[in-house]
Amino acid sequence: MSIFSDVEEAKPIEVFDLVRKFNEDEYPSKVNLTIGAYRTDEGKPYYIPVVKKAESEVLEGTMNHEYLPILGLEPFTKAASQLLLGDITQRQEEGTIFGVQSISGSGALRVGAEFLVKHLKCTTFYYSIPTWENHHLIFMTSGFKDAKTYRYWNEESRSLDFDGFCEDLSNAPENAVIILHGCAHNPTGLDPTEDQWKKIAEIIKEHKLIPFFDNAYQGFASGDLEKDAWSVRYFLSQGFEFLCSQSFAKNYGLYNERAGNLTFVLNSGENVKAVKSQVTMIVRGMYSNPPNHGARTVSTILNNDVFKNEWKYTLKLMTDRIKAMRKALRENLEKLGTVGTWNHITDQTGMFSYTGLSASHVEYLRHKYHIYMLGSGRINICGLNTNNISYVAEAINDALLNVAK
Hints:
Blueprint: H1 14-24, E1 31-32, H2 49-60, H3 74-85, H4 89-94, E2 97-103, H5 104-119, E3 124-129, H6 134-141, E4 146-151, E5 153-154, E6 159-160, H7 162-170, E7 177-181, H8 194-206, E8 210-215, H9 225-228, H10 230-237, E9 242-247, E10 259-265, H11 272-286, H12 293-302, H13 305-335, H14 343-347, E11 352-354, H15 359-369, E12 371-372, E13 378-380, H16 389-402
Helix pairs in contact: 2-12, 2-13, 3-12, 5-6, 5-11, 7-8, 8-10, 13-16, 15-16
């Protein structure tokens, strides 16, 4: 008997399992709308030009392979926190806002969640229905005991269920952690308006809840970094103490470099030393030191005005392509007279669209048309291009005509 005999096999992770199946599929017109990665109009990964320049500068410089500090590369964490929160130099000098380099956004969430459990004694967290599927796993693995949800997607109207959202937050127990998507909500692509964010902040403050912003798509919602940071900056202006995770996988195309940042926002300098010391111990016991290359690449761009401006321009081009594909998909569906209304496709923002397709529709599309998407009907808009847009629209039209929901 092996000591591993009683280990049960876990279910495959849906998105990666679908990517594997797509890669094995030999059908010439197959379409991948699964994993959240930007693609060009030729369907190829995009190596952002300024990222390539910055990487060359990093490699040609004095970089070596010594350990970074446990909390990361300071020029990176400072610039990353500023990118999200704006002009916070004084707060950073005081220490009441500081960043922790992480293994992308997932690592930031993991470190932050463990800190909340161990040192703020949090036991309950809330996430939207639906949300990114890894939120539940990360927070439960971090030691949270109670996972609860707040309403977000209204299936009937294909819009934000704001009343349900507010009601569920109002019923949350004190000290519950609320996971909020800063912009470009994954998977629905729906974000609250500024007035709705103000109401959300009011409820969170009144009920003494703890906001934890997940920011994986800054720049990918509107193409404007400042606009996409509005929600988080509003909470900052209202005096909240909170945590923010950032990922640079999408907006820099650094998917496998795992460059991320976790920002702590405190209201008292008296607590900074203790908080930093405990975060240091969490990181030390988890992965000890963060990786170097991705963080130095991002830091090189954020701390160089010429590079940063080029990056912002490229982000706008990428976002414009996403918006164009949204518009084209909606127009193609409406031209075909496809069952239902399709304004939600263009009302949503960012990489993802919650189409409203059922699991039966999704299965039909995969088997008949070799179009791959998540079972929830969420698609990555970046997988669409001028060569496959009409094919996808015609396939969706067929599915809705011939498959029961």
